[in-house]
Specification:
The protein has eight helices and five strands; from the N terminus they run H-H-E-H-H-E-H-H-E-H-E-E-H. By secondary structure, it is an alpha+beta fold. Strands 1, 2, 3, 4 and 5 form a five-stranded antiparallel sheet that branches. The radius of gyration is 18 Å and the shape is globular.
Length: 196
């Protein structure tokens, strides 16, 4: 599929068929996500792939899916055939920037005015979403209400932060989010040339 088509077709799909996602397609999607950028090539991103129904249901609870379905929406987190839990690791960035080629002239670590580990995992999540579309699949993103509960459920090390769940599957007809009524901001309101 053409890149422009992939980007324009991407949307948060919140209903999936029961058809499984092929392992080959999933591997291609994950391989793309692994290629996302990371400051200093720190590579502080990890991905946990969940296909077990009980674990998907437990993660859906930790995402607050019940509040969503109470409004008449489909259980798109527990109902997806596969969930990917993207994680980031701030400590990996600090370790990388304490290596000789990244130290400041005074021997110290750079200051981090922006937590780029979140920027980088965001890039990886977008790659997952676009990769799913490229495979003829659909995906969404759901944040966690209880990251520590997710860490406990999945055995995630303390220094690693799960940032959400990416449900992936074959799209089924879904009810669009009421948020879409806000419409996309006008190009002139978003893109600034030279200065704000």
């Amino acid at each position: 599929m053409d890149f422009v088509q992939v980007v324009r077709k991407r949307r948060m799909v919140r209903h999936f068929t029961g058809e499984p996602v092929g392992n080959e397609a999933l591997d291609r999607i994950l391989e793309l996500a692994r290629r996302g950028p990371s400051a200093g090539f720190s590579q502080g991103q990890d991905f946990i792939v969940i296909s077990d129904a009980a674990t998907r249901s437990a993660l859906a609870r930790l995402c607050g899916e019940d509040a969503y379905t109470a409004k008449g929406f489909h259980p798109f987190i527990s109902g997806a055939p596969v969930l990917i839990v993207p994680c980031t690791n701030e400590a990996a960035y600090h370790r990388r920037y304490r290596e000789p080629d990244k130290l400041r002239p005074d021997g110290g670590e750079i200051e981090w005015p922006v937590p780029y580990w979140y920027m980088d995992i965001g890039c990886a999540v977008m790659t997952l979403l676009l990769g799913a579309v490229n495979e003829g699949l659909a995906a969404a993103f759901a944040g966690f209400h209880d990251p520590d509960g997710v860490r406990d459920l999945l055995g995630i090390p303390e220094e690693v932060v799960p940032v959400g769940a990416v449900p992936i599957g074959h799209p089924a007809p879904d009810r669009p989010s009421p948020s879409l009524a806000r419409r996309r901001r006008a190009r002139a309101a978003v893109i600034h040339h030279g200065r704000w």
